[in-house]
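User: Please fill in residues for this 253-position structure.
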């Protein structure tokens, strides 16, 4: 594992020249980005642009064909199983569909990672579950079945499960997809509140501009396998780059 090559001590994750193909389809073609500790970093792009592939490479669900993924200066592309086990204690992922277990009740879902990855006692786990559900505004629903929850509640339970492990980085995969405008706004504000309250770093992939403009610190546009713009919200909103302008204004090709 190499030493930290970043000149900026605030940089938590740095991606250099990341490449990933599936057969003849080159999805990521040299992605470069830098995520600073504590910020909300959002990757935007059209459906099929490779956002989910990027996230899966970052959390170790896919192995890139080339490039580096540096976490605290350590190259995760070269990491072995033991290194990834340690890193995954710092990472939590909120998947697009929640990835909740229908066979478990709400409390058991939120406790799932705690039971598998920590040595906490059952009374400690129950208290951590209670705290996590309280943070997302779902006090006292531990015994409900997943089938009893609305779409918005499922999203919030998935977030509770993520934050229960006190992660350093929370990854969100299209967190507002399939939600009505009011619940989308609720989830957006919850993401912002979790970032501020927990002090975690937040990475989001989405095509939802309203979410991006309301909570993002840094926005990046993924197009043709590369990051074509990395900027603050106002700079991104006002960018004259033709691809970004079409995306912001909703202009079809």
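Assistant: Residues filled in for all 253 positions:
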């Amino acid at each position: 594992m190499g030493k930290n090559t970043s000149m900026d001590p605030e940089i938590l994750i740095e991606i250099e020249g990341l490449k990933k193909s599936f057969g003849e389809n080159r999805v990521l073609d040299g992605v470069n980005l830098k995520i600073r500790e504590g910020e909300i970093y959002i990757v935007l792009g059209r459906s099929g642009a490779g956002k989910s592939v990027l996230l899966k490479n970052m959390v170790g669900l896919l192995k890139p064909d080339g490039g580096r993924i540096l976490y605290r200066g350590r190259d995760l592309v070269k990491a072995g199983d033991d290194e990834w086990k340690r890193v995954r204690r710092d990472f939590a992922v909120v998947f697009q569909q929640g990835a909740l277990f229908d066979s478990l009740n709400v409390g058991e879902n939120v406790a799932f990672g705690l039971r598998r990855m920590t040595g906490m006692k059952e009374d400690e786990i129950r208290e951590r579950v209670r705290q996590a559900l309280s943070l997302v505004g779902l006090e006292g629903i531990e015994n409900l079945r997943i089938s009893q929850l609305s779409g918005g509640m499922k999203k919030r339970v998935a977030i509770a499960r993520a934050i229960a492990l006190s992660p350093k980085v929370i990854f969100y995969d299209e967190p507002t997809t399939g939600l009505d405008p009011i619940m989308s706004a609720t989830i957006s504000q919850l993401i912002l509140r979790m970032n501020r309250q927990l002090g975690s770093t937040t990475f989001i992939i989405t095509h939802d501009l309203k979410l991006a403009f309301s909570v993002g610190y840094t926005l990046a546009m993924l197009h043709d396998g590369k990051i074509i713009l990395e900027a603050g919200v106002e700079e991104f909103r006002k960018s004259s780059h033709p691809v970004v302008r079409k995306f912001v204004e909703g202009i079809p090709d």
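For context: Confidence is low (pLDDT under 50) at residues 1-7.
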